[in-house]
Design a protein that fits this description.
- This protein has 39 residues and is α+β, with helices and mostly antiparallel strands.
- The chain has one helix and two strands.
- Strands 1-2 form a two-stranded antiparallel ribbon.
């Protein structure tokens, strides 16, 4: 279980969208570039 800013992690928290956006952005940034073959 994750612990964020002193409270338990709540997937319904308003900040989850921002967290997921940041995670997705980092995932795209650090993911290996695969252009020659479909996923």
């Amino acid at each position: 279980m994750m612990d964020l800013h002193g409270g338990t992690f709540d997937p319904d928290d308003a900040g989850i969208d921002r967290i997921l956006d940041n995670f997705e952005r980092l995932a795209k940034k650090w993911a290996p570039k695969v252009t020659s073959r479909p996923l």
